[in-house]
Structures are given as structure tokens and as C-alpha cells.
Amino acid sequence: MKKIISLSVLMLFVSIITQPQTKKVKVVTTLNYLKYVTEQIGGNNVSVIALANPKQDPHYVTPTPRMNAVTTDADLFIENGMGLDQWAKNVVDASGNPKVQAGTSGHLTATLNVPVKELPTEVSRAWGDIHPQGNPHVWLDPLNIKIIAENIAGSLKTLDPANAAYYLNNLQHFKEQIDAAMFGEALLKAVGKKAGDILSRKTKTGELTAWLQTKKLNSKLGGWMKTAQSLAGKKVITYHKTYIYFAERFGIDLAGELEEKPGIPPPPQHRDAVVELVKREHITTILNDNFYSTEAAEYVSSKTGAKVAVTYIDVYATTETETYEGLISTLLQNLSGTVR
Ligand SMILES: [Zn+2]
């Protein structure tokens, strides 16, 4: 017996001294795209849990005891913010974890510094009840995901300064990956140093096409921006106002929504108004987020022949969306396959 005890004490001792010096940073995120980006930046130094199911409506997630429990000993809590995942506050409160309360270095609103669209005003507060701080679906613009990644890297650096260089290196790598998916490797090579920054800036100011022409680089454009050329100016209907950042980035025209009042199925008059709009504008595509009923979309489709594309907006929702790049590629494919 004594021998067994001393052996187990010895093994315990060995396991303590062979453990890595640094403890992983335990991160809890609300949405899955935040988990994905955190894993890209944090690599082996983080363990990340996402609270929401990627197929779930991100506006309405019911906090559970499991969510509170996993947050109890988290070092960092990351939310999308902008009023989308307000349910996160209940989880943070219920966890009783002082390290992740709002205002501490262990609490990050990932969309900090992302330019917000559709801020409710006195004149137009139609979407204010579901988007009280403007439209929060910012992550579907790949240029915004780079800002989000910078914010996440900033928090990891603060919480784990010993590995700051590692996080910054991973951030750089992630941004290069997004730039390559966005513009294509050939164009990045042709532009050379700081290509990602230059091309992102030209895209944001709407000068990309003209700039590529003057530089005679048109033929080098690849990636999502190349795919999107065939979609430019095309009109689509969406169920919810999920795609405003995505559409603006890729030059798609959002003609209208099936959802008239957030959270309420479209009334018959509104469905029929959309039918008229689809006919008048010869619209061929309706994007319907997977967590909304397709009933209204199918109705419009039956009257007009427009195709209903059921779309996913979070990473890990399907096998095609196991990465952020896969998520954006799949959305563009949904459109390429149906938009005429
Ligand atoms: Zn929304």
C-alpha cells in the first residue's frame, strides 16, 4: 500500500513538473464565428467554448445553467455586441466571475471600432427593437472580420503578455489569409508590400476597380471580389436585415425584406407587396436565414419563380461553413447559383 501511495505521489510530481509553464487562456464566446477567430489568433494558448448553437437565431438565445457554469472560470468573455447578443449579459451576471464583467480586461466587445450602419434615429426606428445599436451583422463583411481579429488579439495580449508576439504573428497570418481569400494570391503578389492594407482601403472607398485599371492589374483580381463581379448590382430579397454589410462589400443590391416587424411572421399584405416587388424588379433570389421559417419565402417563390436559398450566418453551422472563409464562400455560392 505504502509503495502504491509513494508511486502515485511521484507520478503526480512528475506530471506537475512536465506541464507547460503557461496555462491556457480560457475563452468563452457568444457566437461561433468569434470562437473560430479566437482560435486562429490564440492557437495552442487558448481553449475556447462558444455558447450559442451556430444554427440558432443569434438575437434570441436562452441562457442555460451550463452556459453560466462554463463562464464561471473563464479568463476572457467575448461578445459580438451592438445589441445582438444581449442575452450574454445574463450569462456573465449569473456566472459570478469577476474576471469577465463588463469594463474589465476579461470582457471584450469584439465589434469595437467596426463602422456601424442603420443606427436607429427618431425618424426611422423601425428596426430599433431588434437592432437597438444599429445593424449588428457586421462580421459578414470580410474587411470587418480583420478589425474583429485585431480586437481579439488585443485582449489576448493584455491577458497573456508573455505570448504577445505569438498572438500578433497569428493575427498577421489570419489577416493575410482573409486578404488572399478576398482578392486572390496573384493580386496580392502583384501589388507587393502592404497589399492587403492597400486593397482593403481601395475597396472601402469604392475605388478598387478604377485603381486596378490604372495599374493594369484587372486580370490579377481573384478570390471573393472576383466572384462578386458577376453579382454586382443584382437585386435580392432577404428575410431579415442580416446581409447589409455583406451586400455593400460585394456590390449586391438588397431590394427588400420579407420580415416587416422583427420577430413577427410577415402579414399577407406585406408578402403580396414583396411578390409585386419581385415581379417588377425581376428578382430571382430570396435569402432566408436557416433559423427563420421559409413559409413566406416559399409563398413568394410560388407566385414568382424566385429561388429560396436557405443561408447560414455562423461558422460551424454546416460542413461547408467549418471556417470563416467557408462561410463567406458558401454565401457567395448561394447567390451565384440563383441570381440572374
Ligand atoms: Zn438582426
Q: What do these coordinates show?
A:
The chain is an alpha/beta fold and 340 residues long. The chain has 3 domains: 23-112 and 125-172, Nitrogenase molybdenum iron protein domain (Rossmann fold, 3-Layer(aba) Sandwich); 185-221, no CATH class; 230-338, Nitrogenase molybdenum iron protein domain (Rossmann fold), CATH 3.40.50.1980. The chain has 14 helices and 8 strands. The chain has helices at 2-18, 32-42, 65-71, 88-95, 142-159, 164-183, 185-191, 195-204, 208-214, 223-229, 244-250, 268-281, 295-304, 324-338, and strands spanning 25-29, 46-50, 76-79, 107-109, 235-238, 253-257, 285-289, 307-311. It has a 4-stranded parallel β-sheet, with helices on one face. Helix 2 (32-42) links the parallel strand 1 and strand 2 (46-50). Helix 3 (65-71) packs across helix 4 (88-95), helix 6 packs parallel to helix 10 and helix 7 (185-191) crosses helix 8. The termini are far apart. Bound molecules: zinc ion. Zinc ion binds at residues 59, 130-131, 137, 240-242.
Integer tally of domains: 3
CATH topology of the largest domain: Rossmann fold
The rounded Rg comes to: 23 Å
Query: How big a fraction of the residues is strand?
Result: 5-15%
